[in-house]
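Hi U.,

Before I forget, here's the chain from the pilot set. I'm dumping it here mostly so it's searchable later in email.
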Amino acid sequence: MLTNKTITAVATPPGVGAVAIIRISGEKTIDIINKIFTRQKSQKSPMLSHKLYYGKITDESNNIIDEVMCVLMRAPRSYTCEDTAEIHCHGGIATVAAVLDIVLKNGANLAEPGEFTKRAFLNGRIDLSQAEAVMELISAKNQLARRATLRKLAGGLSQKVKSARQQILSWLANIELSIDYPEHEEEAENLATIQQECVILLQNLDNLAKTANIGNFIQMGVPTAIIGRPNVGKSSLMNAILQQERAIVTEIAGTTRDTLTESVVVRNIPILLTDTAGIRQNLTDFANLESLEKFANLESLENSQNSKNPENEVDKIDKIEQIGINRTIKSAENAELVLFVLDNSEPPQQEDIAIMQLLNDKKKIIVLNKNDLPPKFSLTDLTSLSNLSTLNNVENVPTVKISAKTGEGLNELYSTIESLFFGGKISVDDDIITKERDKLLLQQAISHIKQAQQEISASVPEDIISISLRAAYVALGEILGEVVADDIVDRIFAEFCVGK
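Structure:
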């Protein structure tokens, strides 16, 4: 997969800026720099590695293109382990294009997306897990993602995977010894040791695989839906968290007719926050629903009732609002967390009970809003009003009193969210799985090791056991890129930006 061609690309974002960086890597790098970079006449000695020089970029007619700073990084002490150079020129669009053009004319080829990092991987400077971390670090949208990715880039995840592979390799060596020397008297003891060590290794790998959800939340944000009946302050809560007037707020019930999603970071916790339409429905229909999934059939139920009785309660809600309510339910289904907003200044309503029933199986926080007004709400009253046994544990659901109007209680809400997803479970300074590919490969390795355990317990021949262990070894190797197909490598680096 390695080629001898010299590559170049602009390493800084497109557009006008004070400085732009053009990167060059490959065997022709030094020759290209010597042709186009002119230093002061007093500097006649060869350029030292890793030292920044002032000079001018000139064309074949010795016309000055730009005044620049240039640094040469000789192999193998460079990002790609090849001779590499960076030209720091002025950031004007025309200037950058002219400098890049002269580099191309002197023997470089335009780099493909991620080709510099791909060369670092192929030349053994970093493994595939670390290479992926480079792009993740560039794309990090919050401090949690940055810290987790930096640890991955430093090789934290790689070390755990390498340690697991080394353990499996030692098992395979012992098994091969037993196969080659049948008279080996310690065969049974070796298999018993492997069986015991499998338990510890499986626990470690399983704990690592479980971090994938946290890794996804860190990278993309925790999908969070604000749910409740009309006029309890859902949009006000949205605006309070965003600290801007993003959602329309009025005293008219049903103002919000559609879902509104925004990304926000609170206390370094990334959240995908969705404001939704208030749920108000025919209470008889609501009472017959046992889960969010069954709500999907409500629209057809309403249509059939409309045809039979045009004066029923559903007809009182206009069609646009009904569509909004259906989208609210879908948002609740897809959310990892629901902020169930209730009006603390009013007694519990039947609609509150119906919504609580719909959210029965969801991870949620009860948010008692309008705490700046005299309180009239009681969770005990909410339970007593309902004959639904599933609401008996409502007291165990985290509850926070807030005022979206004054901001009171928001810090407590943020702490509760942090506790639900990060507190006491995992630290972002631990090694975290951030890629779906790594998660699937870990799960494959775990499955193969469990298969080997079962085979040992069933006294299966050792050569069969070694097949399962070798499959686990290969799966872990794919995470590091030690055993991976060329097309997969190409696909991974194709997601990178040009110049990285």
